[in-house]
Amino acid sequence: MASNDPDREEDAAEATAAGEDEDTGAQIAPIVTLSEVAITTGEEEEDVLLDLKAKLYRFDKEGNQWKERGTGNVKLLKHIETGKVRLVMRQAKTLKICANHLVLPSIKIQEHAGNDKSCVWHAADFADGELKEEMFCIRFGSVENCKKFIEMVEGITESDGKHVEKESKDASDAAGLLGKLSVAESKTDEAAVPSGAAYVKAEDEKSEAETKA
């Protein structure tokens, strides 16, 4: 039979709560022990030049259509030692790589026709574990981010292109200098060693002088 006395019910509730809060001193060990695991992404020796959220597409030549590769953050990473820059993009939830290639002078990036929030380019991509020529299209949430991405990529390709041209010119100048040195050395050697006729004449004059003596 239920009690109609609120005081008695309150006392019973307090006693139950006190029993639940009582410390019995028993030690309960966790069923599973989790340890910290160090995760390496391969980006530890690179500086982040750009990090923007975007959606990436890859052109499927067989189906003649664009296919979505994933939504996530596209990054431009510069290696601390080599100075090389690569583009890396991972899917937001799975962290699967959907783009991974070097930003080279051969890359020509341009705004996608009809959409000022998107741009397209070709690259030799390594996202699937092997180099494959791919055509990418990336779409940003704003026109500003798209322009920022294009300007950054163009700046890197132009800078690398000038560096390659300088190295090529330096190599050409060095080759020319070595060629001049070789010619000069050959002329010096020819002057130091007399021709056959001159040598014979000199020997004859030497013999004649010795005979007279």
From TrEMBL:
Any one of the GO CC terms: nuclear pore
Gene Ontology MF annotations: GTPase activator activity
Keywords from the UniProt entry: mRNA transport, Nuclear pore complex, Nucleus, Protein transport, Translocation, Transport
Name of this chain's protein: RanBD1 domain-containing protein
CDD domains attached to this UniProt entry: RanBD_RanBP1
Main location, first listed in the record: nucleus
Organism domain of life: Eukaryota
Location relative to the cell: Nucleus, Nuclear pore complex
GO biological process: mRNA transport; nucleocytoplasmic transport; protein transport
SUPFAM superfamilies attached to this UniProt entry: PH domain-like
SMART domains: RanBD
Naturally occurring in which organism (per UniProt): Musa balbisiana (Banana)
Region called Disordered, residue ranges: 1-27, 194-213
RanBD1 domain span: 27-162
Bias kind Acidic residues: ranges: 7-24
UniProt biased composition (Basic and acidic residues): 201-213
Pfam family membership, one: Ran_BP1
